[in-house]
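Hi everyone,

Forwarding the result from last night's run.
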Amino acid sequence: MKTRILALLLLAGGCVFAGPRVFFGVGFGGGYGYYAPAPPPVPYAYSYVAPAYAAPSYGYTWVPGYYDYVGSRYAWRAGYWAYPPYRGASWYGPRYYGGRYYRGYWGRR
């Protein structure tokens, strides 16, 4: 009898937290890119090649420096070593195409 009462209490308690939730969202710009002015040229001092020193640990990937659109202007993000979020992931840098800015992302090869 005690186990039935305990099961009933657990079931009733779980239903309190499983109530319906309604969310509304509004998006502008269409797609995942957004309109931005063209980025400035990449500084000559920075290259897209990994530095001469070794990665901090096995499995790290070099993410080259890039301009990131922050607020209403571009900010330079220096290259860095990053551990991919999942096995087989590759970094696809940000790009500017057709008057739209697309952020960089990790994706499958």
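Residues 42 and 66 are 7 Å apart (CA to CA).

Cheers,
N.
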